[in-house]
Structures are given as structure tokens and as C-alpha cells.
């Protein structure tokens, strides 16, 4: 008989649990940190639906400049120059998880 951890490692069961936590960003974050087996599935659900571009601002290389539009609380990318594609790897890793923005 499988134990609790083995049961949660069944991808279908884990997906149902994580989908149930979709509105609870804090719990999804904790799930992504508690176990390597949960990291990618939890991050997929956590980043699936984004309501603002703001969470991405910390992922963009620091050589990019932003201007905050106070009317809409959105950020506009003013200019960027990137020395290499490696600077964008972290951004690409999380942006690939987004289904809707």
C-alpha cells in the first residue's frame, strides 16, 4: 500500500490538489518550495493565470528600464538592451508557464 508521499507523486492526484489551490497563491508557493517533486507542477498552476505584468518585472534583467503608469498600475518597458540570451532565461522559465495574462 503506497504511503501519503507516494500517493501525492501520482501526477493526476497532485494535479487535482493543485488545481483546487489555484486561488491560493501563498499555498501554491509553499507547495513549490516543500518538495522537488512538487516544484514544477505547483509553479505551473501558480503562474498559469496572471492578472498583471507586475510579477514579471523582477524577472527581467536589470538593464531594462520601466515606467509605472499610475492610471492603470501597469508597467511599460521603456528601453532594453541585453548582452546575451542568458539574461532572459529566468524570465523565459516563468513566462512559459503562463496561459493567460
**Sheet with most strands:** 2 strands, antiparallel
Spans of at least 5 consecutive residues whose pLDDT stays below 50 are none
Order of helices and strands: HHHHEEH
Mean pLDDT value: 81
What is the number of independent domains?
Answer: 2
Choose one word for the global shape: elongated
How would you sum up this structure, described in words?
The protein has 101 residues and is mostly helical. It has two domains: 1-49, no CATH class; 51-96, no CATH class. It has five helices and two strands. The chain has helices spanning 4-8, 11-20, 25-34, 36-48, 89-95; strands spanning 65-69, 74-79. The chain has a two-stranded antiparallel sheet. α2 packs across α4 and α3 packs antiparallel against α4 (36-48). The radius of gyration is 17 Å and the shape is elongated. 9% of the residues are buried. The model has no long low-confidence stretch (mean pLDDT 81).
Summarize the structure.
The chain is mainly alpha-helical.
Main attributes?
101 residues, mainly alpha, 2 domains, two-stranded antiparallel sheet, 5 helices, 2 strands, 45% helix, elongated
Layout of strands and helices, then pairs:
Layout: H1 4-8, H2 11-20, H3 25-34, H4 36-48, E1 65-69, E2 74-79, H5 89-95
Antiparallel strand pairs: 1-2
Organism: Suillus luteus UH-Slu-Lm8-n1
Protein name: F-box domain-containing protein
